[in-house]
């Protein structure tokens, strides 16, 4: 059963179109890292983010970020403005994947939740939501809270849930890219960006075709204008990739 404070977190982020993507209790390695930056009392970390375009209307509805120009990082600014006050109300800390130094290991943290797995594309795949999710922040609690988990109980032993990719024989994600950007475990982002930037009519502008090919979370593809926002940022040399 989930701790009451995490149920309250759900209630406060739901109107923003955000979800708890996973949680975990800090390992010894986590505590060493957090202690080195003055966060030695953290015991529970909860990752929060969007699923598909769940938050997009809330971002667009914020007058401070219209029009959504990727050069101005409106989504990052929105995330800080809406999540910071929630952390204050819950008396916990919050960190973001786009701020640093220090830079926080969100990718590794995701894999520690038993909800998110590394996909053949290299990016995280959520067992329920698929690849179209993104971290907007992590709430750091000093208490050891109970949370819903992707782990399964077998008798008295607790074992990690299996990745959906393990049962996917065809792996259509690896053959969907028109420039074969995902090859031999590597991502050729330069070829990907050149193709998208040079082909304004490409279906890639509706969202990465390799990600869209994943059979998990097919209902969570980005809306057209949300996908265009990210692709616009991706191909613009003025925006860091």
Explain how this protein is built.
Helix 6 (189-198) packs across helix 8. The protein contains 8 helices and 10 strands. It has helices at residues 4-13, 28-36, 56-61, 74-89, 106-111, 189-198, 209-212, 224-235, and strands at residues 18-25, 44-51, 93-95, 116-118, 124-126, 133-141, 152-154, 157-159, 182-183, 186-187. Residues 151-159 have low confidence and may be disordered. It is α+β, with helices and mostly antiparallel strands. 30% of the residues lie in helices and 18% in strands.
SSE pattern: HEHEHHEHEEEEEEEHHH
Distance, first to last CA: 39 Å
Mean pLDDT: 90
Morphology? globular
The quaternary structure here is single chain
% residues in beta strands = 15-25%
**Computed Rg:** 18 Å
- Overall helicity: 25-40%
Which features would summarize this protein structure in a list?
241 residues; alpha+beta; four-stranded antiparallel beta sheet; two-stranded antiparallel sheet; globular
Give the SSE map.
Layout: H1 4-13, E1 18-25, H2 28-36, E2 44-51, H3 56-61, H4 74-89, E3 93-95, H5 106-111, E4 116-118, E5 124-126, E6 133-141, E7 152-154, E8 157-159, E9 182-183, E10 186-187, H6 189-198, H7 209-212, H8 224-235
Antiparallel strand pairs: 1-2, 2-6, 3-6, 4-5, 7-8, 9-10
């Amino acid at each position: 059963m989930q701790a009451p404070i995490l149920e309250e977190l759900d209630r406060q982020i739901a109107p923003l179109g955000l979800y708890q993507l996973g949680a975990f209790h800090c390992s010894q390695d986590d505590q060493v890292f957090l202690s080195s930056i003055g966060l030695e009392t953290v015991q529970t970390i909860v990752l929060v983010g969007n699923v598909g375009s769940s938050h997009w209307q809330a971002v667009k509805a914020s007058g401070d970020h219209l029009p959504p120009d990727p050069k101005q990082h409106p989504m990052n600014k929105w995330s800080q403005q809406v999540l910071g006050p929630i952390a204050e109300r819950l008396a916990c800390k919050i960190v973001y994947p786009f701020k640093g130094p220090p830079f926080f290991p969100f990718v590794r943290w995701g894999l520690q939740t038993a909800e998110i797995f590394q996909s053949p594309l290299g990016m995280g795949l959520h067992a329920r939501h698929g690849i179209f999710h993104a971290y907007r922040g992590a709430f750091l609690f000093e208490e050891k809270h109970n949370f819903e988990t992707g782990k399964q109980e077998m008798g008295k032993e607790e074992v990690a849930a299996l990745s959906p990719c393990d049962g996917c024989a065809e792996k259509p994600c690896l053959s969907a890219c028109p420039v074969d950007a995902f090859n031999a475990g590597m991502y050729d982002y330069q070829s990907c960006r050149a193709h998208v930037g040079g082909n304004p009519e490409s279906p890639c502008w509706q969202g990465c075709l390799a990600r869209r090919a994943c059979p998990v979370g097919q209902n969570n593809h980005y809306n057209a204008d949300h996908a265009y926002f990210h692709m616009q940022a991706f191909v613009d040399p003025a925006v860091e990739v």
